[in-house]
Structure formats: structure tokens, C-alpha cells
Amino acid sequence: MTDKHHSKADAFREFQAEKEKLALAQGYSLAVAARDGDLEQVRELLKKGAPANWGDSTPLQWACQRGHPDCVRVLLNAKASFLLTHAHDGRNALHYACARGNIECVGLLLSKGAADDTQDLNGRKAFHLAYMNGHVDVVDLLTSAQAKMAAKAEQQEPEHGKTLTDENAIAAGNTRARALLNAHSPSPVRPQSGSAMKRSPSPRRR
Questions:
Q1: CB of 150 within 8 A of CB of 172?
Q2: pTM for the whole thing?
Q3: Which one of 83, 84, 124, 142 is most buried, by most CB atoms within 10 A?
Q4: Which CATH number characterizes residue 98's domain?
Q5: For residue 192, is it within any domain?
């Protein structure tokens, strides 16, 4: 009886080990496919059960960083999480998309409920990264999204006692928004040297 019990336990451990190896291989392959914008491979791997949230640099983070909106859409529909952050810099998918000015990826993340409420390890939100790198279209999109959130909050909160924070100023399109950001950021928020504010590439027409 004991030998039989051990045999079953060993078989289960072997099964789990093989399952983990498969997930590792599929997860790595999915991350590579997302990084390279290989949409068909992304779809195929997800159909085979590849973990959508595999690794420290997740497939979604790679797709957002490299600017592959089609892959981002498929990954989001497969329940890939935009909340996960990279251990090295504390950034999530929205951080990466905003830093690179990948506006279509930003729009997809926002449409799924992503919010610019997470700071990276340097204390910067996605808005800061978009502004610092001169992606004015992304800044506008984030501002619009924040304004909608603020308007929704105003419908649920009484006006009495409300204060104008730096985030509310941005949402309202206040001209003091950048000054407030500079005042409350860990370091001045300004475009990087040699990086003028510029329009991001227009989303591809379908």
C-alpha cells in the first residue's frame, strides 16, 4: 500500500514538473512573440494555454513597450493583467506604452480600465513619462481620461470641502497643472534634453 502511495505521489510530482516546464516554455515563447509583434504566434500560444501573465517582463508589457496594439488587444482579451509591475523599475504596461508614445496601446489599456495611479521606483506615473519624453498626444489622452474620471467622481461626491489637488488640476485642464506636477514630483518633470514635445504616430487605420 505504501509503495503504491509513493508511486502515485511520484507520478503527480512528475506531472507537475512537466506542466511547469511546458508553462515556462510557452510563457517565454509568448513573451518573445509579443515583443516581436507576431500576432499569429501570440494567438496560437494563447490557444495552447500559454500563461498570459508569464515572467517579470510580461507579454503585455513587451507589446506595449514595442508598440504592437494588435498583440495588446489579444492579450487583454486573454485576461493579461495591466496591473503587474516589473521588479527592476516598478513600471506597468501603461508606464511602458506612455514612455514610448505608443498611443494606440495606451488607448487600449485605458479602455480596459487601466488608470494612471501607480508610481514606478522613481516615483513617476505614466503621465510623467509621457511628458518627459515629449509625447503630447499621450499626455492629452491621459488628461482626457483623468478628466472623465474626475467628472464621474464629482457626480458621486459633494462639492463641499473639495480641494484642487495636482491630479484634479490636470483633469480640469488647469494651466497650473505642470507647475503643480513639478512641485509634487520627486524630481522636476520636464521634457528630456533634446526632446521637444511632439505628436505620437497616428493609430493605424483599419
A1: yes
A2: 0.70
A3: 142
A4: 1.25.40.20
A5: no
